[in-house]
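Bug #77: duplicate submission created two jobs. Keeping one. Sequence:
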Amino acid sequence: MSRRLEVGEVLRRITASARSLLGARYAALGVPDDHGGFAQFVVDGVSEEQWRAIGPLPRQHGVLAAMLHEAVPQRLADVRRDPRFEGWPDAHPEMSDFLGVPITDGDETVGALFLADKQGPHGFTDHDEELARILAAHAALALTNACLYERSRELTLAGERARIAHELHDAVSQKLFSLRLTAQAAAALVDRDPARARGELAEVARLAAEAADELRAVVVELRPAALDEDGLLPTLASHVEVLNRAHAARVAFTADGVRALPAAQEEALLRVAQEALHNALRHSGAASVSVELRGTPSRGAVLRVVDDGRGFDPASVRRAGRRLGLVSMRDRAAGVGGSLTVESAPGKGTAVEMEVPGG
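Kept job's structure:
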């Protein structure tokens, strides 16, 4: 449970682990919202078709409400005979013996674990309840950690949006302002100096092309990375395909022996690849850029982005580093236990390589 960082995956792992550990036919985990219902409700032991037929997420009533509001375990020989029981939807499976344990973080109830139909002749025991308590304590830590991780990702995304907005203002809006002034100058010269007017119009065309390139780069960065749904390889391949269509330079992607990686590592690799590609296509004047992702014997991965552009002098890395985001890329690599190296020379292109360790 502790290795998973997405809240949804943590909830599913907790629920499946509880059902297996306690030998129950059914297990569920509910995370309450602030409106008398559940923000999330995960089940195990019920098929997807059954779950769809049951209908909307349950409300906090009956025994479920007691679990969340009283924050004490509930062990019942037959939940249907409890005076708090208020019935089930038509498609809900029949259940009898019941064990519920709250998941608490300090004084706050962050969820509740429900188990039903012990697979044995005597129902849930004192030992089962103790196991469920221990599991709930671990679940609280895992769930809190996952929530903090997702909050951190949200803040990171907010920072990315602010950076892109700043870049949009600094680059594109200034280009458009220059373009407007140049167009006005051309209009004023049309009658009295047509030759100069033609020169100004040529400058308008150049500025418009640059603004289009700037805007295209920003829009590409704003495309959502479908890491959660698709994983790193399809997401990176799709990003490279978009760039290859959007730019004159040829952009190619190859992959070999890459296994699934922790979510934080996959995100860092994607962001470094995006930054390196952005640099190659915007600053280097490259005719071709290659992106390679390969697995390592230690079950980690190596990302390599190589361009044939003008390159730069590593001795001037302080100035170039700010412009090319090298500090940001190194921070991303270090943040997931990886390393980043940059090889370049004037007229020799640039190679950016990031390696992340295996688990």
